[in-house]
Amino acid sequence: MNILLLGSGGREHALAWRLAQSPGLTKLYAAPGNPGIAQDAECITLDVNDHTAVVRFCESRAIGLVVIGPEAPLVDGLVDSLRAANIPAFGPSRAAAQLEGSKGFTKDLCRRANIPTGAYVRTSTLEQARAALSGFAAPYVLKADGLAAGKGVVIASNRAEAEAALAEMFDGQFGDAGAEVVIEEFLKGEEASFFAVTDGKTVVPFGTAQDHKQVGEGDTGPNTGGMGAYSPAQVLTPELQARAMAEIIHPTVTAMASAGMPYSGVLYAGLMLTAEGPKLIEYNARFGDPECQVLMMRYRGDLAAMMLACAKGELDAAEPDFADETALTVVMAAKGYPGTPTKGGAIDLGAAGASNGGRAAKVFHAGTAMKDGALVASGGRVLGVTATGKNVTEAQQAAYAAVDAITFPTGFCRRDIGWKEVAREAETERPLPRPN
Ligand code: AMP
Ligand code: GLY
Questions:
Q1: How far, in Å, from the CA of 34 to the mean position of ligand 2?
Q2: Which pLDDT value is given to residue 149?
Q3: Quick check: CB of 3 below 6 Å from ligand 1?
Q4: CB-side exposure of 333: number of CA atoms within 13 Å?
């Protein structure tokens, strides 16, 4: 089977790497891809906004499956266009992708299906939003309804800050995405990511992870797309995973099907583990980046076969197989990120680049490019250096050993990815005090 993969980030490199290991793969194309993906696929130029051009390409190359990495083409209905041309695609339809594309849509669905989440109000004018603040206590959680590249959430510590943020949001700070603003109850607890794959009827869990959204060590500073991640997330105990499936994922899939918009693809639930149990913070209609990198390091199944079965509504109900080991990704970003990143900096992967999965580290490319035959940085997040170990402590050591083998003077990374879990592991391994 020929496969077309859409996207150009570290997530897509991880998907390309695993798809290339699927026995059923004949040829993998990636659009636009990146220099890392080019090791596993033929990279081509294709405008994903031009659905007719994508369909024509698929027909001309006998593409049997399209895998869509990022959210924008999903929300834009590319899956609908492909399905109309009988081309199987992994990912939700435009209607189903509203679970990521509209915060208000998801909140209303949670209310209807009795899914645990924070209390909320949808507002469409500044006056309405200001008035709604009175129903909440600080800190105030304000969210642009639509896609805002991960930047549409403001947590304001007092009412004046909240009012100022609302004024900017309704003034077009996030464009159309901010035409509506959802005000939400602030949830307390530890955050964790839970993944499930569904074809609209059958649902299987697909691993857990925790990421580090903030740019600075100790989880400080501005938010980014993610500076690192690890899988599994030990805080999501088997009991909590079972609750997440029963109380959040299954009711969502059922509610989407009864609303006439069955959800197919990967469902990425951002959860807050509160004192009352797991509550939904948000849904994404795609894999996370860099969460996908750690999941793909651990996934033992045939990715192409699983994705095709999902796209055709024939998903196997057996639980997917993940290695027991821990995987950890350290993101190396270009200086300036998440503001304006320095572009064009030279990268020498050294010994880290020669290694190839398994126990050794795997370097996933994100914002890289080839210039005059040499690898350079071309984006904010540049590399996802990923390694495995028996626990987070070991995986972290292996990942930083690989980071240290890389020469990237205009880059930086956090040195503490996994710190919460490393501290917990040190705690459990410390010998108990001897009784007197
Ligand atoms: P989102 O884009 O909805 O995932 O929000 C980005 C981040 O804001 C989340 O990862 C949380 O850290 C935080 N956040 C969002 N909603 C809430 C909430 N209701 N309570 C507490 N923190 C939140
Ligand atoms: N790392 C967060 C995300 O992909 O949404």
A1: 19
A2: 72
A3: no
A4: 23
229, amino acid identity? A
Tell me how far apart the alpha carbons of residues 100 and 253 are, in angstroms, rounded to a whole number: 14
* pLDDT one-digit tens code per residue, 73-119: 999 999 999 999 999 999 999 999 999 999 999 999 999 999 999 99
413's tokens: 């990374």
Helices 10-19 and 291-298, axial angle in degrees (round to 10): 20
* Distance from residue 269's CA to the centre of ligand 2 (Å): 10
Tell me how far the alpha carbon of residue 5 lies from the centroid of ligand 2, in angstroms.
19
d(CA 168, CA 382): 31
CA distances from 260 to 66, 71, 95, 200, 247 (A): 23, 21, 9, 10, 21
Sign (positive or negative) of CA dihedral 291, 294, 295, 301: positive
Contact yes or no for 301/21 (Cβ under 8 A):
no
Quick one: which of 314, 204, 182, 194 has its CA closest to 244? 194
- Residue 159 DSSP one-character state: H
Query: Which ranges of the chain have pLDDT less than 70?
Result: 150, 177-178, 353-359, 430-436
Neighbouring-strand partners of residue 213: none
Residue ranges in 29-113 assigned as alpha helix (H): 51-60, 71-75, 78-84, 98-101, 103-113
pLDDT at 357: 46
Task: Give the pLDDT of residue 175.
Answer: 73
316 touches ligand 1 (CB under 6 Å):
no
Angle, alpha carbons 260-262-267 (nearest 5°): 145
- Is the minimum distance from the CB of 291 to ligand 2 under 6 angstroms? yes
Q: What is the pLDDT of residue 358?
A: 44
Alpha-carbon span 253 to 200, nearest angstrom: 6
Does the N-terminal peptide bond of residue 278 adopt cis geometry, omega within 30 degrees of 0? Answer: no
- The Cα–Cα gap between 382 and 9 comes to 9
Task: State residue 157 phi and psi, 5-degree precision.
Answer: -80, -20
Structure tokens at 154: 């403001």
- pTM of the predicted model over 0.85: yes
Q: Whose CA is nearest to atom 4 of ligand 2?
A: 288
The two structure tokens encoding residue 84? 């109309």
